[in-house]
Known about the structure:
Blueprint: E1 7-10, E2 13-16, E3 22-28, H1 35-48, E4 52-57, H2 60-63, H3 71-77, H4 81-93, E5 97-102, H5 105-114, E6 119-121, H6 129-136, E7 142-145, H7 151-163, E8 169-174, H8 189-196, E9 201-205, H9 211-218, E10 223-227, H10 245-262, H11 276-279, E11 283-286, E12 301-304, H12 315-318
Parallel strand pairs: 3-4, 3-10, 4-5, 6-7, 7-8, 8-9, 9-10
Antiparallel strand pairs: 1-2, 11-12
Helix pairs in contact: 1-4, 1-10, 4-5, 6-7, 9-10
Amino acid sequence: MNKLPNVLEIDGVKIGVGYPTYFIAEAGLNHNGDIKLAKKLIEQAKESGANAVKFQTFKTEEFVRKSNKYFDLFKQSQLEQEEFGELMDYAKSKEITFFSAPFDIDSADYLKKIGVPCFKIASSDLVNMPLIKHIAKMNTPMIISTGLSLMREVEESVNWCLYEGNDKLALLHCIAHYPTIPEEANLDAIHIMREKFPFPIGYSDNGESTLVDLAAASIGANLIEKHFTLDKKMSGPDHSFSIDPPRLKKLMSEIRIIEKIKGDGMKIPRHNELEGRFYIRTSITAKHDLKKDDILTSEVLSVKRPADGIEPKYLDQIIGKKINKDLPSDSPITWVDIF
């Protein structure tokens, strides 16, 4: 296999170091099983500035036992498969990327059929080898959340994808506790994962605070995923800790400002510093009036602004040299003035 990529492209948008933070509005179950609400989530995600809106696609009976306490919750929030095709078309009409996290193989096949540009693997399925390998074979970009996991488990899931020939991957650090409080975020794991894997690394946020997302963006998260709702007071398991449209719009604005603050990382003078290199820096000047053939000593030299003479780092080198013309006090001393 060729060198693994450190940039992922989804729907024509590149994700990775040097590119804007890719933001995923996680609609999840916040449509409450109502396609009208789902469409409204798509609209508001677009208007708020998110790059993509993400849902969850499943047949409850295929991934939750009826005896499980969450069975009824998922059953009540379930959209029918064909509704995801309708939602994808709607997202296209609104010019926002649509994708989903399938929780079973049949749902994955349907999403492939309607042409989703990306698959999301939920933290709960990081160790679900049959599902991951099945999706990896589709050779479609995959974003893998890593909540609940050990590093070796993350490596295993990545290797399953690579074994099937799919290296179009991004990984999300995640804390699968709902809601995640800021002190639990452990964002430095993003650095550790970046050292370990060549793929874009981001953060999947299951908490209410936007400070965590701003911190993630500031330390270089290439992607951020955050739960999104129309109204935090709506009935449902995720609404209370999800971000609503006004706060998402504000968050997106702040993330874009952070990107500008971070800059390009090159330690060179910024455009607005160039003038300062002359006026703020210093150079060697004459402390007193100097006559031609005077010998330069530390007693007759000083270092003052601006920087229109010899740089101070050369002071020792010009000591003992002679001046070749008369110079009044406070004049800059240049290389052509000495011999």
